[in-house]
Amino acid sequence: MKGFTFTKYIPEKKGGGKFDQLLNIFMQLITMTSGDVSQALSWMSDLDRRYNLTDDGYGMANFIQDLKDKGYLKEEPAEDGNGGLSITPKSEQTIRKQSLDEIFGKIKKSSQGSHNSPISGTGDEPTADKREFRFGDSPDQVAMTESIKNAQINHGIGDFTLTEGDLEVVEKEYKAQTSTVLMIDISHSMILYGEDRITPAKKTAMALAELIKTKYPKDTLDIIVFGNDAWQIQMKDLPYLEVGPYHTNTVAGLELSIELLRRRKNKNKQIFMITDGKPTCLKEGLKYYKNSFGLDRKIINKTLNLADQCRKSKIPVTTFMIASDPYLQEFVREFTEVNQGKAYYSDLKGLGNFIFEDYQRNRRKRV
To answer: What are phi and psi of 70, to 5 degrees?
Structure first.
């Protein structure tokens, strides 16, 4: 009998054509420029001069025209008569999908072999784990191939016998619905010292939003930003998000998050907070109480009180601190201890990885 002959596998090239290659770069630049098409195209032209992104057969003008023809850009008339270009909803969705592939694709590779321990039991999400049959297990959970194999091993193949002790079942996970609030710090420190911290935060938010929208449509995700104040933004607003000349009013962010989650009827609720600094601001009536020097006990105590309020409401807060200052980490540890939540001290490259793995883990358990 002739067996199989294996040859070298040559994968198909994805995204054929110069346009797809340039589109990937353009979408990255649009995120960095907060939706400023003119700035993104200017940067792209500079990259073209340096690294020859285009050639005689396909130039930047061809690329810009294709962006318009394919529905990624639209002309915007201006009051002074000079029209401009802006991105379309198609571009916004493309950026979210690109962020999802960029971040979630890496997680699938890095997570192989990790042994998280979500609650297992009655549900409709099968896992790769199997165990012996127990009274009360549903017949559709029985792994027939493994069970028949056990019967042959245990009783021989002469007279086929299948007993309860031979049965194996496939574990299933709880398919819990989860309500998540993602808090993004947009204080001035998110772009200080020559480090762009807001772009990775935006990419992570867009990827998380796209994941929930496509894979977990019954889950909810609310996104808020906080500086001197806190306010809710929509998924479509994320590419345009910019850092402002703000202090860090963590209290306002937590108060708004609690209010949003209070309206949600899902039992599982959680807050993800991306920040790079300590709380430095409170709003008292119409005035702001601000102190950027050290850890102001008045501000810290109000923040810790809200951490405790979240704990009593069974709302765990997971803090992603993208700063390495020891005294800032000390505050995060105190905040996490009061809330009984979790904290990660992440660099910018690991931010998306941490958030996605934590989201997947948390949504499988009942709080």
So the answer is: -90, 0
Prediction pTM value: 0.73
Q: What is the pLDDT of residues 226-280, one digit of tens each?
A: 999 999 999 999 999 999 999 999 999 999 999 999 999 888 999 999 888 789 9
Q: Which residues contact 23 (CB under 8 A, 6 or more apart)?
A: 67, 72, 94
pLDDT tens figures, 233-248: 999 999 999 999 999 9
The pLDDT of residue 347 is 67
Nearest to 248 by CA among 183, 203, 312: 183
Question: Can you tell me the mean pLDDT for 201-213?
Answer: 88
Spatial distance between the Cα atoms of 92 and 39, rounded to a whole number of angstroms: 17
Only one residue has tokens 């559709």, namely 140
- How many angstroms separate the CA atoms of 336 and 188, rounded? 24
Long-range contacts of 355-359 (CB under 8 A, 24+ apart): 355/204, 355/208, 355/272, 355/274, 355/320, 356/103, 356/104, 356/107, 356/207, 356/208, 356/211, 357/107, 357/111, 357/114, 357/116, 358/272, 358/318, 359/178, 359/180, 359/208, 359/211, 359/272
Token reading at 4: 């199989």
**Contact status, residue 51 vs residue 44, Cβ threshold 8 Å:** no
Mean pLDDT lowest for which of 48-52, 274-278, 285-289, 347-351? 347-351
Q: In whole angstroms, how far apart are CA 236 and each of 186, 263, 273, 318?
A: 17, 22, 20, 24
Task: Count helices and strands (H / E) in the chain.
Answer: 10, 12
Assess contact for 362 and 316: CB atoms under 8 A: yes
